[in-house]
Specification:
- The complex is a heterodimer of chains A (295) and B (281).
- Chain A is an all-alpha fold and 295 residues long.
- Chain A folds into two domains: 67 residues, no CATH class; 169 residues, MetI-like fold.
- Chain A contains 14 helices and no strands.
- The longest helix of chain A is centred in the first third of the chain and has 33 residues.
- Chain A is flat.
- The relative contact order of chain A is 0.14.
- Chain B starts with a helix and ends with a helix.
- Chain B has a single domain, classed as MetI-like (MetI-like fold, Orthogonal Bundle), CATH 1.10.3720.10.
- In chain B, helix 3 runs antiparallel to helix 10 and helix 4 packs antiparallel against helix 10.
- Chain B has a two-stranded antiparallel ribbon.
- Chain B is globular and about 75 Å long.
- The chains are: A mainly alpha (295), B mainly alpha (281).
- At the A-B interface, helix 1, helix 2, helix 4, helix 5 and helix 6 of A face helix 1, helix 4, helix 5, helix 6 and helix 7 of B.
Chain lengths: 295, 281
């Protein structure tokens, strides 16, 4: 999950007597196993329950055990009857468009902030950091009202533009912190050859920043895929629902009057793409988060 | 092309979008908070919310969620101590601890609604190990849901804290720790006296970030886990705002809540910025 490290880099010598060392070792393992159990059980429960026939399901501890006759029927049902295919389509549109546009905008803005000299640089930088903590709820309500007035509510651009706007500050900041550290001489070499600013951006900054650019795209895609609030408020019509909104409407009733395995299949459909994307790109993703936070 | 002009061109898209999506709504909220049905009413909306016990109940619930911050940091510090030293299966534990951070809150919420159901697996487990008295309606009994939600917040965010702590420790010169071992110190001693001070900055960062998240980014948790939050005893400020706008159709009042949130989160951000400046100087 981080840059490749040798086992010895991780292991710190253990001191103390044999029995003491053994006890500590056992205690550590037991604790970590408990932690992992807590962390992973919900995922396991989701998978196991989604593969269970609805008729075999009873809400109790037994429902966590692997089903005797696993079936994919819940997934098929969720896709067709519950409309998850449409939910997926909208989510993909929102997520990918947002990621694409946000990344492009963040790269050029981050580059400008990191490498160019101009008057308003400081205040804009402060502004970027400041707007990052504005509560989305505060922002979405006026956007909703404004969009209703303009008649653009429940159109594709409505939620997409909002999502882009909300993700730009963080993306720009990540790119900025990365590009800031590129050694000056690499740019000077290009400048000596008479390269314009845009040329420097294209030939020097971007190629060197590929990891962080990918990270921004990834994180933005993930945030917008997972987002509930923006599509909940700005895409309120039936055909514009995203996965998360669909899930929120499906919550199993407290009295359990809902088909839990079916719902779990829906949850799995919503979760698997993001988890898969994460597992495939772990290195980038983690490095991007860490750099964004520790710089 | 001069740098200044180039910079303007490159910044325009970002600035326009942010102005449109974040600044305009913020300003619109401020203005709207002083109106009611389009007419200027001064501080009436503010008086309304500050005099509303539900508003304060919502604020209290945010404070309950705030407890997730120290809990999360404490648990993360322990996990980091174990992982950093090196434990069999460390790589796998790394991944497992971080996994809850990845899926959406809505999805996680649904899973937990099922797990925490009064007749669901968690209570079933408690029964099975003889702790029947602990079983309860985790998301339904009065006064309990907010604490369950707080626990879910911790569950989701511990991995992120562990990630940052570990990254920070890995960037520390290992000789610092090895010197301690030469002196015969135990890992517990070494961790608390050498590692923790190194982590102080990261802890502060996570603390302030999490504070802001509790007030700004908790809507999904509560909305899903209480299924739309029908009962005011489970409101948080974001939900209170949402309801004022979409259920009560009182945009002025909603805007007042929004301004309150902006000021609250804004001051936390200023604190964070001030701390970062102080660290550098």
């Amino acid at each position: 999950m981080r840059a490749r490290r040798q086992p010895s880099e991780y292991v710190v010598p253990r001191v103390g007597s044999r029995p003491a060392k053994a006890i500590v070792w056992v205690a550590e393992q037991a604790f970590m196993i408990l932690v992992v159990f807590v962390m992973l059980t919900p995922f396991y429960a989701m998978v196991v329950t989604s593969l269970r026939r609805s008729s075999d399901f009873t809400s109790s501890l037994a429902s966590i055990s692997p089903p005797r006759n696993p079936t994919f029927e819940n997934y098929v049902l969720a896709w067709t009857d519950l409309g998850f295919s449409s939910l997926m389509k909208n989510t993909v549109i929102l997520s990918l468009t947002t990621a694409l546009v946000t990344t492009v905008v963040a790269v050029i803005a981050g580059f400008a902030l990191a490498r160019l000299r101009f008057g308003g640089r400081r205040p804009i930088l402060v502004g970027v950091i400041a707007v990052m903590s504005v509560p989305p709820m505060v922002v979405i309500v006026p956007l909703f009202l404004g969009m209703v007035k303009l008649g653009v509510i429940n159109t594709y651009p409505a939620a997409i533009v909002a999502e882009i706007g909300l993700n730009i500050p963080f993306g720009t900041y990540l790119i900025y912190t990365f590009m800031r550290d590129i050694p000056e001489d690499l740019f000077q070499a290009a400048q000596i050859e008479g390269a314009s600013v845009f040329r420097q951006l294209r030939s020097v900054a971007i190629p060197l920043s590929r990891p962080v650019i990918l990270t921004v795209a990834l994180i933005t895609a993930m945030f917008s895929w997972n987002d509930l609030l923006v599509p909940l408020v700005l895409w309120q019509s039936e055909d514009l629902r995203v996965l998360m909104v669909g899930l929120a409407n499906l919550a199993p009733g407290r009295q359990g009057g809902v088909d839990v395995p079916l719902v779990m299949a829906g949850v799995a459909i919503s979760v698997v793409p993001v988890v898969a994307a994460f597992l495939l790109t772990r290195r980038f993703f983690v490095r991007g988060l860490v750099e964004g936070a520790l710089k | 092309m001069r740098e200044r002009t180039a910079a303007s061109v490159l910044l325009v898209p970002a600035l326009v979008l942010v102005a449109l999506v974040i600044l305009y709504p913020a300003v619109a909220s401020i203005i709207r908070s002083f109106t009611s049905d389009g007419t200027f009413t001064g501080f009436a909306n503010y008086r309304a919310i500050f005099g509303d016990p539900i508003f304060w109940r919502s604020f209290e619930n945010n404070l309950i969620l705030l407890i997730s911050v120290p809990v999360c940091i404490a648990v993360a510090l322990v996990i980091t101590a174990i992982l950093y030293r090196g434990v069999f299966g460390g790589r796998f534990y790394d991944l497992a601890v971080f996994l809850p951070f990845i899926p959406s809150i809505a999805a996680i919420g649904i899973i937990f609604i099922y797990l925490l159901n009064a007749s669901g697996p968690l209570n079933g487990l408690l029964d099975a190990i003889g702790l029947h008295s602990l079983a309860r309606g985790w998301l339904t009994d009065p006064g309990v849901p907010m604490w369950s939600i707080m626990a879910v917040v911790v569950w989701t965010r511990v991995g992120f804290a562990v990630l940052l702590f570990t990254a920070r420790l890995l960037s520390v010169d290992r000789e610092l720790f090895q010197a301690a071992f030469v002196d015969g110190a135990s890992w517990a001693r070494t961790y608390s006296q050498i590692a923790l001070p190194q982590l102080r900055g990261t802890i502060e960062f996570i603390a302030i970030l999490s504070f802001i998240e509790v007030f700004s980014w908790s809507f999904a948790y509560v909305y899903v886990l209480t299924q739309g939050s029908k009962s005011p005893s489970n409101y948080i400020l974001e939900i209170y705002l949402y309801n004022k706008q979409f259920l009560a159709y009182l945009p002025g009042v909603a805007a007042a809540v929004a301004v309150f949130l902006i000021l609250l989160v804004g001051s936390l951000t200023i604190v964070r910025y001030a701390r970062e400046r102080a660290e550098i100087t």
